[in-house]
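Example: Carbohydrate ABC transporter permease.
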Amino acid sequence: MTALDPAAPSRRPSGRARRLGLYALLVLVALIAAGPLYWLASSALKTNPQIYAYPPHWVPTDLRWSNFSDAWNAAPFDRFFLNSLVVSVVGTAIELCSALLCAYAFVFLPFPGKKWLFLFLLGAMMVPGHVTLLPNFLTIAQLGWVNTWAGLIAPGLGSVFGTFLLRQHMLTLPKEVMDAARIDGAGHLRTLFRVVLPMSRPMVITVAIVIMVTKWNDFIWPLIVTSSADMRTLPVGLLFLRDQETYANWGAILAGTVMVILPVLIVFFIAQRYIIAGLTQGAGK
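Written out as structure tokens, the predicted fold is:
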């Protein structure tokens, strides 16, 4: 039948050409996305003349590994890493627990005004974070938490975005499992941590990574609430490094930037399958 069908030979080249065009588009998008990262990583190993050279040198001819040691010694990066690690890990743990409890309450607990309260939370997602900078700073200052870990962590303990994602995912969980847990006499906390949490692991990991990356990359709030170098986080530390280098040693500044983003990239590549699974599950409702 294929030989008798005059349209069959013309369909194959068009389908093959469509796939080749799609692959070419994907390669182009990947190059556009990875280009700045490659330039950053390669420039971190260049000397200043190579960085300023025109036309640009895409491959460094003389690898300058000392840029990383220069960046580490020019600023207290060990303290910057410690501060960012404490803020990201502790803040993410508390914020994730809060989002889990709130999402569970919105889905499985009946209480008056639940729908209106959830709409209020959705509205809060549309408010820019910079609007709350002054009220948060005044509150932290009155509590005496300026230039402390508590001051860095406290304003971000509530996660409206995480609550929204987890609520949407929990709406897709089978009601039969929840009914079985209720018949077995499980309370709400036991149901959350023994039933809901294992079934929501990909989405929980996705929310945790989103929260952690947001806290790791936060710049404005740590810049406002800290006043000494020993309490700066890594993004603010890059500004400190730039001031120390006075725009002269861009190789060291770029090497410091690589050290800042490398932990986030490692976490993303390790957990990317959980992120994809979590977002796929969250697309059900």
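Residues 8-43 form the longest helix (36 residues).
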